[in-house]
């Protein structure tokens, strides 16, 4: 089963070079486009708020660069690097170049903590 999943993922990811920043961003934007209609149909607000946070990160070059480095570092090592997220550094990046509309507050640290178990 694992081999089948691995082959399926290779086919899905083939058009993207996820080891590079710009194609990875494009991939995430495409995933958001596909996920948003389903999230809109749910009765909970949490998924919508998390999607807005991910969109916010994608729109902010400095913030996306920070999280992209974290994710690429995570895939490069067996250690869990998400625990090294510096909240004050993330806050400074947000303050340096905020997009026009800030989403409702869901901490980017929360998003990282939700992704960590999936990756590990």
Give a description of the structure.
By secondary structure, the chain is mainly alpha-helical. 71% of the residues lie in helices and 0% in strands. It has 6 helices and no strands. It has helices at residues 2-13, 21-41, 46-59, 61-76, 87-96, 108-119. The protein is globular, with a radius of gyration of 15 Å.
Helix-and-strand structural type: mainly alpha
Number of strands: 0
* Distance N to C terminus: 19 Å
- So what's the overall shape? globular
Which residues form runs of ≥5 with pLDDT under 50?
none
Helix content: over 70%
Radius of gyration: 15 Å
> Strand content of the residues, in percent?
under 5%
Order of helices and strands: HHHHHH
How is the main sheet built?
A: none
Q: What's the helix count?
A: 6
Mean pLDDT reading: 76
List the defining traits of the structure above.
mainly alpha; 71% helix; 120 residues
Summarize the structure.
This protein has 120 residues and is an all-alpha fold. It has helices at residues 2-13, 21-41, 46-59, 61-76, 87-96, 108-119.
